[in-house]
Design brief:
The N and C termini lie far apart (41 Å). Strands 2, 5, 7, 8, 9, 12, 13, 15 and 17 form a nine-stranded antiparallel β-sheet that branches. Strands 6-14-10-11 form a four-stranded antiparallel β-sheet, with no helix packed on it. A three-stranded antiparallel β-sheet has the order 1-18-16, with no helix packed on it. The mean pLDDT is 87. By secondary structure, the chain is an alpha+beta fold. 43% of the residues are buried.
Length: 297
């Protein structure tokens, strides 16, 4: 059932998505964004910059001609000094540029999706209670990346990768009107769960796919689910040796090939969000969104 807070315009924009062939459309868009015809990709890039008012002043490459295809533009690198990291030893950094959809406490195993709507922590993490246990009673922040945002994802603090789980699913839009309208959105969409052991305790970053976004990448494994398979896949990583993945605060973790949402989970008693971290608040990669509680780890 739709949320009691969902407006009629939200409903009219969101519910037709239920009928769309999400995977087929995403496959077509994935192909189109990798065409290297100069006329096609240059026109598409310029129209996108104009329509979404993309700030190119921070981009490493400014002109449409500098990119081999649209996806290279969409996942563009920024100038080296454009995202200085907050260096407080207790800081938890924003992993992305975007806007807060929701943030707060994980209460009774439930995570807030939007006002009047929540969903199961266990379902978000692949219906695995053991995977969910370290985050019961902890904190969450849901960060929405709009089309105009920078689409690389970075580490919020120093950490070591423990496990990834690819969870197949639908590809509903994750725009604000759909989060207010479609129940259990983040547990229905395709997603990649990454679990880290960090100086701030257990942390999960969940990369949520969306329509036209059935393609994510990580720095350690490359493209996730390139064939759009429909099987849950878990990979565990060694703490040392060839499968060991350690990332520092601010290191790139992955990227979205088209925009989506990142959900950040922290364990109980480890982190306090800053007072400004509330729904609608813009966030910028590398800026502090939380503080580690001294002596918690």
């Amino acid at each position: 059932m739709p949320s009691k807070t969902a407006s009629l315009p939200d409903l009219l924009k969101s519910w037709p998505l239920v009928l769309l062939p999400h995977q087929l459309l995403s496959r077509l868009v994935r192909s189109a964004t990798r065409w290297q015809s100069a006329r096609w990709k240059n026109t598409l890039i310029r129209l996108f910059i104009w329509h979404f008012k993309v700030d190119m002043s921070e981009a490493e490459h400014l002109a449409a001609e500098d990119y081999p295809d649209f996806n290279s533009f969409f996942t563009r690198a920024l100038l080296a000094d454009s995202r200085p990291l907050d260096r407080s030893p207790l800081a938890l950094l924003s992993p992305v540029d975007g806007r807060v959809s929701a943030a707060g406490d994980i209460t009774n195993g439930r995570v807030i999706q939007a006002k009047g709507r929540d969903y199961s922590l266990s379902a978000l993490l692949g219906c695995d209670e053991n995977r969910a246990l370290p985050f019961q009673g902890g904190k969450f922040a849901t960060l929405y990346l709009s089309p105009r945002d920078y689409h690389r994802i970075h580490m919020p603090c120093h950490g070591q990768l423990l496990e990834t789980t690819y969870i197949p699913g639908r590809l509903f839009s994750v725009a604000p009107h759909t989060t207010r309208t479609i129940p259990n959105l983040f547990t229905r969409n395709e997603r990649l769960v990454t679990l880290f052991d960090t100086e701030a305790g257990p942390i999960a970053l969940i990369l949520v796919g969306a329509i036209f976004v059935s393609c994510m990448e990580t720095v350690w494994g490359g493209t996730v689910n390139p064939d759009m398979g429909m099987e849950l896949q878990t990979t565990r990583f060694d703490q040392s040796g060839s499968m060991s993945v350690k990332l520092q605060a601010g290191d790139e973790l992955g990227r979205f090939n088209m925009g989506s949402t990142v959900i950040l989970l922290c364990g109980p008693g480890q982190i306090e969000w800053v007072n400004t971290l509330r729904s609608g608040q813009p966030v910028r990669m590398g800026k502090t969104i939380g503080q580690r509680i001294p002596g918690a780890c």
